[in-house]
What we know:
Blueprint: E1 14-17, H1 21-32, E2 37-40, E3 52-55, E4 58-61, E5 67-69, H2 77-85, E6 91-93, E7 101-105, E8 108-111, H3 116-121, H4 127-134, H5 148-155, H6 158-173, H7 182-185, H8 187-196, H9 199-205, E9 219-223, H10 229-237, E10 243-244, E11 249-255, E12 258-263, E13 268-271, E14 273-277, H11 280-287, H12 292-299, E15 303-314, E16 326-328, E17 337-341, H13 343-346, E18 355-363, H14 375-390, E19 398-409, H15 415-426, E20 432-435, H16 444-459
Parallel strand pairs: 1-2, 1-14, 2-10, 7-16, 14-20
Antiparallel strand pairs: 3-4, 5-9, 6-9, 7-8, 11-12, 12-13, 15-18, 15-19, 16-17, 17-18
The structure holds flavin-adenine dinucleotide.
Flavin-adenine dinucleotide binds near residues 40, 66, 404 and 445.
Amino acid sequence: xANPAETSSPLEETIIIGGGISGLATAWFLHRSGRGVRxxxxxxxxxxxxxxxxxxxxxxEQGPNSTLQKPGGADDALGRMVASLGLQSRLCEANAAAGxxxxxxxxxxxxxxxxxxxxxxxxxxxxxxxxxxxxxxxxRRGREEESIxxxxxxxxxxxxxxxxxEPFVSGVWAGDPERLSVRAAAARIHALEERYGSLxxxxxxxxxVAKGAxxxxxxxxxxxxxxxxxxxxxxxxxxxxxxxxxAEVIALRPQAGGWQLTLKGGELQWGRxxxxxxxxxxxxxxxxxxxxxxxxxxxxxxxxxxxxxxxGYPRRNVEHPLDGFGFLAPRREGVALLGGLFSSxxxxxxxxxxxxxxxxxxxxxxxxxxxxxxxARLKAHLTGELAxxxxxxxxxxxxxxxxxxxxxxxxxxxxLERLAELDRILAPFPGLxxxxxxxxxxxxADCIRNGERLATVIGGEKGAxxxxxxxxx
Length: 473
Ligand SMILES: Cc1cc2nc3c(=O)[nH]c(=O)nc-3n(C[C@H](O)[C@H](O)[C@H](O)COP(=O)(O)OP(=O)(O)OC[C@H]3O[C@@H](n4cnc5c(N)ncnc54)[C@H](O)[C@@H]3O)c2cc1C
């Protein structure tokens, strides 16, 4: 590529570094608004942690299995993206059974209550814990920043933390509720206390209790051939030549009117604007030379490690009806598993007829020691635990292990202050933006919404130098 002194048009482009869903969404919405984009991805394929493996008779995910869409609203960037890509007919809503979620207690799977009556009857919580929950509206507001664990203990009691919130936090965040900030990682729940003084009052006001306060609102979606379809399609629909894989950016330098990038191998590229759509550590490396304070802040964001085990069985070998979303395993139950998804129940095409596919998760911030187990023993251990829980006989037909050492960024205590300080340090650098799941939400749908917001900011030529591209959610 020519030097910016010799050519003007490339400077009009935005260069996006990182081809995960954050970078792809930013690129797609910028392209839709008529802006030039170039996307550079270090690995051989786009998608980041989103990867579907098609290994007949099973199809399984190595990253997200689905995401939560809130159709029709201002936040529904996923819906707008799917429509603009022409993927509506490929989008699949999860089986209605997904409304049922199980929690492991006493070696048995118990359904999470989905109504007040079911709550009164569930063996998941003692009578004492149920009465404690009814006292929630009278609990005083917190004053300082709290961990999720401290917040839940204060408002709902220890049992609710152990058998509802902690397993959920492990399942979604691979996180430790004692370290995650309630304000940063569970902003909507925290807002109920702020606004209504009580979670129950807030949930009632929002009409959620009757539908089951534990169930997320919106619809759980994937694609007929798996989550991998989305990044593949975005990359294929961007203008020819605008996406380059095997293109790791190793250095970034501010220049008059733009940015100079150095790729592994020595090639130089220039852009007027640069979006770092990268994991925190990768973004830190590129910022280190000219904004060391920002690099330090990003390096301080912890990540939870994950092992994902896709396991396929002949249907007849599994006693459990697999009639739900899957199950969560509280740490108190003493198993290594964090939980499992009943993948072949959720979406069609994950296992051929007469077979079932379960996706297990292990590790997280609280299970880092277990992940030091070598592959064969780890697979055998998790397969054994699953067999006991679901009543499985015989060996699995398929076992596929994926390890992601830095899987999920942790919004721990002080996270929001960390981001505010980062924005302050990066504010003097016009045309530099950061995106990625380490801020403003970790779900695929969050990353798409945040990409759309950033594209709007860049498209409107305002907000240069802000790093986030939108108000936090
Ligand atoms: C195991 C797992 C399960 C999940 N389950 C769900 C779920 O069920 N539902 C849900 O909604 N969300 C889920 N998530 C979360 C969601 O998938 C992620 O938060 C989201 O996909 C992250 O996208 P990203 O683009 O921000 O980051 P990434 O996917 O990490 O993408 C960053 C990209 O940057 C590239 N890169 C790094 N360094 C460089 C460089 N120097 N130059 C160029 N490129 C570089 C990387 O190769 C990568 O492709 C899950 C995540 C994981 C890990």
